Amino acid sequence: MTELLIIWSVLISQIMIGLAMICALYRVAKGPRAQDRILGLDTVYITGMLLLLTFGIRTANVLYFEAALTIAMLGFVSTIAFAKFLMRGEVIE
């Protein structure tokens, strides 16, 4: 009973995270300003990371967790670079 409950709850969470990713992709595509698009892109990489984590839980494969960690690190750095570019017009000083 508990294993079936975990499988269904992970499946439902994957569907909800997928819907959140679709909403964030809409914000990236139709954002009225560049700041909205950067926040949407930030949300896309976070939801992608969460999808990888739920796939890792579902399949019990460590590779998904390592990929999620890599996406988290690269996403953080890219968000900082985009924000710095919007503020100053250049990334490297």
UniProtKB/TrEMBL annotation:
GO terms for cellular component: plasma membrane. Pfam families: MrpF_PhaF. The keyword Hydrolase does not apply. The keyword Transport applies. GO terms for molecular function: sodium:proton antiporter activity. Its main location: membrane. It comes from the Bacteria. Keywords: Antiport, Cell membrane, Ion transport, Membrane, Transmembrane, Transmembrane helix, Transport. It is a multi-pass membrane protein. It is found in: Cell membrane. The chain crosses the membrane at residues 6-26, 38-57, 63-87. Belongs to the CPA3 antiporters (TC 2.A.63) subunit F family. This is K+/H+ antiporter subunit F. It comes from Ferranicluibacter rubi.
